[in-house]
Amino acid sequence: DAKTTQPPSMDCAEGRAANLPCNHSTISGNEYVYWYRQIHSQGPQYIIHGLKNNETNEMASLIITEDRKSSTLILPHATLRDTAVYYCIVRVGGSSYKLIFGSGTRLLVRP
Amino acid sequence: EAGVTQFPSHSVIEKGQTVTLRCDPISGHDNLYWYRRVMGKEIKFLLHFVKESKQDESGMPNNRFLAERTGGTYSTLKVQPAELEDSGVYFCASSQVTSGLYEQYFGPGTRLTVT
């Protein structure tokens, strides 16, 4: 089962920041938080990942709370093309690095 | 650089028939993963190859599914015989290093319909 909890849906206006929350209260000390998204009919796309520090790349920012029990993915200036299902994933360690997907958050960016 | 490719993009077969899906990972990626999403469900892990070896096949649903990766390059996933509940989208992903700290790149998926 997925180790994360996300709201099923959210929306935001085009050009505004989209803030997608995720709870992962049972995360272990060596587990990373990953974010992927799936745009309709495409394969999942990697966005960003982090361990305990905040991270930023060209797509998004990831804010992880100090206790690591939750995180927020921030799309600073959402566009219509950001409409997708966003998955917050705690990566399983060990010898296999499989991703366990939950149901994600369906983000709708409104014109 | 070419991404992960999958073939075919769509397949429609009858119950009881055999289907083989193919995945070509990004060149140089030793790790290859298969996932699938069946109707109304979440994306589920099937198995993980490191080169030609099966590292983790804990997600394979039953012995009707056979995955191979001869030579550590492309991989095939055979379903024999196919059942109605096998319908869904099958994704392949690859990643560069075993440490797992590098992202998995997904292909566009193969949509399988069993009638």
Question: What does this protein structure show overall?
Answer:
The complex is a heterodimer of chains A (111) and B (115). With 111 residues, chain A is mainly beta. In chain A, 0% of the residues lie in helices and 43% in strands. Chain A has no helices and nine strands. In chain A, strands 1-9-8-3-4 form a five-stranded mixed sheet, with no helix packed on it. The model of chain A has no long low-confidence stretch (mean pLDDT 92). Chain B has 115 residues and is mainly β. In chain B, strands 2, 4, 5, 6, 9, 10 and 11 form a seven-stranded mixed sheet that branches. A four-stranded antiparallel sheet of chain B has the order 1-3-8-7, with no helix packed on it. The N and C termini of chain B lie far apart (37 Å). At the A-B interface, strand 4 of A face strand 4, strand 5, strand 9 and strand 10 of B.
Question: Helices, strands, pairings?
Answer:
The complex is a heterodimer of chains A (111) and B (115).
Chain A: E1 9-13, E2 18-23, E3 33-38, E4 45-50, E5 55-56, E6 61-64, E7 70-75, E8 84-90, E9 105-110
Parallel strand pairs in A: 1-9
Antiparallel strand pairs in A: 2-7, 3-4, 3-8, 5-6, 6-7, 8-9
Chain B: E1 5-7, E2 10-13, E3 19-24, E4 31-38, E5 44-50, E6 53-56, E7 65-68, E8 75-79, E9 88-95, E10 105-106, E11 110-114
Parallel strand pairs in B: 2-11
Antiparallel strand pairs in B: 1-3, 3-8, 4-5, 4-9, 5-6, 7-8, 9-10, 9-11
